[in-house]
Every structure is written in structure tokens, then in C-alpha cells.
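PROTEIN SPECIFICATION:
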Amino acid sequence: MEDRCVDLPRECWEIVFEHLRSDRYQFLEPVSLVCKSFLSLSNPLLLSLTISTLTVPLLPRLFHRFRCLKTIVVGQLSCDLNALLSLIARSDLRLQSLDLSNQKSVPVEGLRQLGSRMKSLKSLKCRNFGRLCDRDLIKISNSLPWLEDLDISYPSFEETMLSEERVTNSGIEEMSGKLRELQKIDVSGNYFISDKSLVALSSNCVFLREIVLHDCCFLTPSGVGFAISNSAHLVSVSVKGLGIHSSLFRASLPNIDISFMSARALSVIEFSRMFISDALLCSIAKAQLPLKKLAISYCQNFTLEGLSSILSAYQFLGELDLSGLDFLTDLCMNDLSRFLSNVTSINLTSCSKLTNSTFFILTKSCSSLTEIKMERTNLGEEDFVVDLVKNTQISTLKLSGNMRMNDSSLCKFASVRPNLQLLDVSSCDGITGGGIANVLKSCNEVRHLEVEFCGGVKTLGTDSKLYKLGILKAASSGICDEGLAMVAKTCPWLLHLDLGDCSAVSVKGVKKIVRKCKGLREINVKGCPDLDPNFVSWMVSSRRSLRKIILPIGFSPGYNKREFLLRHGCLIHNC
């Protein structure tokens, strides 16, 4: 193999490795072990690194090896976060994105050192911080004034907090004056900011392109309208739950209508859990925007007429989310489908009146569809008969939570989409192993299968080889040792297997999986009743590809065995 590696031009191998990365990063690991040339080819292809407590001691070597890292995600650590950021700053990497979400507080000194040495850093995520206030925002903007993407969403909130321990308009105003190159910001869950913050952001950050405003109860449509009207480069706005029970909100609702006439670049509009009107939808329709994605999920106060007006105006939409719209029926969808010929992804989750008829209408009328999401609808019922037409474009079906759906319905769905790659039928009580078997026989491209909480699925029910199935999520399903034996026999390249809380699974079945699935990397066996530390060690010794094992809370392999597992590159998680 070494000789062949040398003989083939490096450019050819680069193309092969790039293809492997575009499919799954984990395929690069075994290839990198073949020879030094392959190692040197694979190292530059790793662009993202997640840091956990266990990887901290290895960081200097990892930074030296993977010189092309662009993104670092920092997990919840027991070490000094400032010291860690100082180490990253000294690495001379050209990082573009740093994710510090779920930390207790802002590592001020570490960010200052990053700012002094890493001018390439453009994106900072500080989501769900334990403590975030105006002072923190000012220190972030002083340290990294060139930031283009900032996420300060959902900081922890306690009623006992003093006002100076929260993010307010004052902090947003001062921060926006310093981050002149800001293009994207998420301020969701900051409950004490108002329209003044939106005025400051749209006035000071002239390059602003994306803004996310979820669960900010003091914002009104007037403020949102100002931001839309006064941000010339704005391409995406996402708004959720803006004080819908406030009389001030209802009074200012008409003010947002005219703002869309000024928003010449908007290509993504997302409204969720708020009052909107037919007048608003009609004003967006008249604005002639370059709209590519529209979401109107769980919204109230508008009708089918308003929805028809906007969909008829934007028949080039690529993504459409109408989840939670109770008034939609099969007849409504039959009427709307004539506007959806270019839609590639549609979400109709929790539209409780929709049946099989809508599903077949979409596959027949929407020739560009690749993804259908109809979770918690009325699939399994059928209002009227629709001709079955094959749609080879559809690769993803997310149908979980449909209690009326059975094997017969599922087989019909699968029969019209032979190129299916992802199927989720979790929490569908009427589905059995026989139904899954029929799907897998007609759709041999399936790579990702979810049957969680499907008590009727005890096996996959097929002897045919499923070479492409890489992910099987069967937590809390009826799968048993016999079913695992079948999985082991038919899915030799399974990568991820979730058997959490599967009471019919034992060590006997898990052994067959470990022996037969050559590329297995992650397995959840927290429901297995007869686990013991020696068996966990055997799993890692027998299948060297394993990188993560999820065990029950309270189960410990012991310190010595945990060290043994780590030396083999396998992490143990308890949940």
C-alpha cells in the first residue's frame, strides 16, 4: 500500500480524501493510519475540534498536528477557561469561530489575549452563559472589535439578579458602537432589552445581515420594523414570541407592514409563536423580495387567504415551514401545492388535520422536494385518494409521533421515493419490524434510521445487506437480542447505535454487534441489564474503532479500566 501511495499523484489522493471528508469525518481516521503520506493528507482536512476535560492535556500536540483548524467548540471544563484561551491564542492557528456556550461566565482575560493575537476570529458564541451582563458585552467588543458573528442568546436568568447583572439596552448600545463590522447577532432570551437595542444595532452596525430575536418580551413590531427598514444589507430576520399578549404589541402590529418595502435584500423570514395578519403577509407579497426561506410556525390571527397571497408571490421558495397551523387541511394543501413546485424542504409538523392525502399531494406536485417533515400530524388516515407518483428527489422523511400510521401507510410512503436516505418514524405505535423491512427492501440507500419508542419494532426484519446504514437510533424500542443479531448480520458498516432503555437487550446481543460491525464508533447501552466492567473493556479491545460508550448513571468501570479505555481513544459517558 505504501508503494501505491507513492506512485499515485498527491493531487489524486487529495480528491479522494476530500470526498471522504464530505461524507463523514470519521472515515479519515482509519485511512490516516495507513502510511505517513496519508497522515499528512488527512491532517489539513480536520477543520473543527471540540475540547473536553479529557482532551485538554493533549491540546498542544493537537494544535501542532491540525494546523488548518477553523472552529473550536469548548465544552464544560473543570480547568481554568482563561488559561485555555491563552493556550489557544499562542497556538498561531487562524481560527474563524469560537464556541464558548454553556460556560459559567465570560473569560475576560482569555478573550483579551485572543484579541491581541488572533485577528482572524470572526465568530463568537456565548449561548446560555451562567452570567452575562452589560460589562461583559463591552469587554467582548473591546477585545474583538472586528467580530462579524455574535451569539449572546439565553443567558441564565434569576429574579433575584440585580439589574447590573443583566444585559440591557445600555450594554447593547455601547457594544454596537464598537462592533462596526458585525453582520450577524442572536440576542434571543435577553428579557430586558427593548426596541432601543434594535435601533442601536441597525444604526451602528451598517453591515448587519442576520438578526435573531426569540423570546424578547419587550420588543415590539415597531422595533422590528425599524431594524428591517434601516438595515440595507439585512438578508435574514427570525422573530419568535414577541410579547403576543401585550396590548402594546397589538397596537404596533401594523407598523411592521410597510417596513418590508424597504428590505430589498431579505431572503429569509422566520416568524414563530406570534400574531401576524393577512395584511402583513400581503405587504411581504407586494415587496418583491428575493425570498428563499419562509417560516410561519405556530402563528395566529391570519387566514388561508393571506397565506395564499404570499406563497403565490414567491413561487421560487426553497424552504417552507408551516408547522403548528391548525387551520390547514388536505384541501388547503391541495390548493397551495400549485405554488410549491420549487420547494426543496417543507415542515408541516403539528398540523393535526393533515392526512396521507397531503403527503401524496406533495410528492406528486412538488418535483423539487428533498425533505418532508410531517411529525405529529394525522398520517395514517386518508381524506381522499391521490394517485401515487414516484419522486426520486426525496431523501429525507421525518414522520415521528404519528400514532395512527401503520405498516401499510409506511410502505406506501416508501414506494414512491426509492432514493430515501433518512427515515424517522419514532413514537409511531403502529409500526412493526415488518413495515421497516419492507421499507429497507425498496429503499436500499437508507443511511439513517430512527425507530425510537416503537415498541412493535423488535427486529429490522430483513436479511438483505444494508451496506449504507450508518446510524440506527432505537432507544426505548422493542428491539431484542434476535433483532441485534440481524442488525449485526445485515449492517456491517454501522457507525452509531442507540439502544438506550431497550429492556429486551442483553450482553449477548451487544456482543454480536461489536464483533460484526467493523466501523462502530458510538454505542448507547444504558438499558442493558447485565453490564459489567470487564464486558465494557472487552468491547473496546474487540472493536478498536469505538470512540464513545454511553452507560447507565451510576455504572462505573473503575478508575483503572477507565484509564485503559481512554488509552484506546474511547470516552465513557453516563446518562
Notes: The two ends are 42 Å apart (CA to CA). Residues 244-252 have pLDDT under 50 and may be disordered.
